[in-house]
Write a structure and sequence with these properties.
single chain, 202 residues, FAS1 domain, globular
Length: 202
């Protein structure tokens, strides 16, 4: 029987749900790709508003442009984790990144019956330890152009370079690009990204 997941009383086959989370149903041969940042385009989130003496959770909650992520972290109770000792590396999708999802999906994930999917999605954006862009770039070079990062959810993210921009590719084939890097926090580091990475959901 095909594995299914409930979203507000609607049932989707998991591959279809993954496509909805990515914002569309792509052709089989074409992974969903978030647009790379444009050099002249403004960054959606101002990292200077994040205090280095704050925790990751505090900075996410208080920074304009990260409101949806903050809400989802609170709902999943992962704000407690990211407010703890750590250290952690968070790849933080902006509100604009969540807006690229299919209409209603980001808020549907806030429903109590979808908590396991929400937790899986959020934990897929967190890596244990502090990983700067310099360290990431070194690992990518050492790996012959790619590095595998193990997330708190246990599923890997593949890091590569697109020019001088770090590109993250999920296990489901969608990509996200680092827009603002190395935002140091008391319990780790935040990298702001322009896409939501989609894992294999429970």
């Amino acid at each position: 029987m095909t594995q299914t997941i409930l979203i507000r009383a609607r049932r989707f086959a998991v591959p279809v749900l993954l496509s909805l989370l990515a914002g569309c149903v792509p052709p089989a041969a074409s992974p969903v790709i978030a647009p790379p940042p444009v050099a002249s385009a403004p960054v959606a989130v101002d990292p200077s508003r994040m205090e280095s003496e704050a925790t990751i959770a505090t900075s996410i909650a208080s920074t304009p442009g990260l409101g949806m992520l903050a809400m989802e972290l609170r709902t999943a109770e992962l704000d407690q984790l990211l407010g703890g000792d750590g250290p952690y590396t968070l790849f933080a999708p902006t509100d604009a990144a969540f807006a690229h999802l299919a209409p209603g999906i980001a808020r549907d994930l806030l429903a109590p019956e979808n908590r396991s999917a929400l937790v899986a999605l959020l934990r897929y954006h967190v890596v244990a330890g502090t990983m700067t862009t310099e360290q990431l770039t070194d690992r990518i070079r050492a790996g012959g152009g790619r590095a595998t990062l193990t997330t708190l959810g246990g599923q890997p993210i593949t890091a590569t370079m697109t020019g001088d921009v770090i590109t993250l590719t999920s296990v489901t084939g969608n990509r996200s690009y680092v827009e603002a890097a190395d935002v140091a926090q008391v319990n780790g580091v935040i990298h702001v990204v322009n896409g939501v990475l989609v894992p294999k959901l429970p």
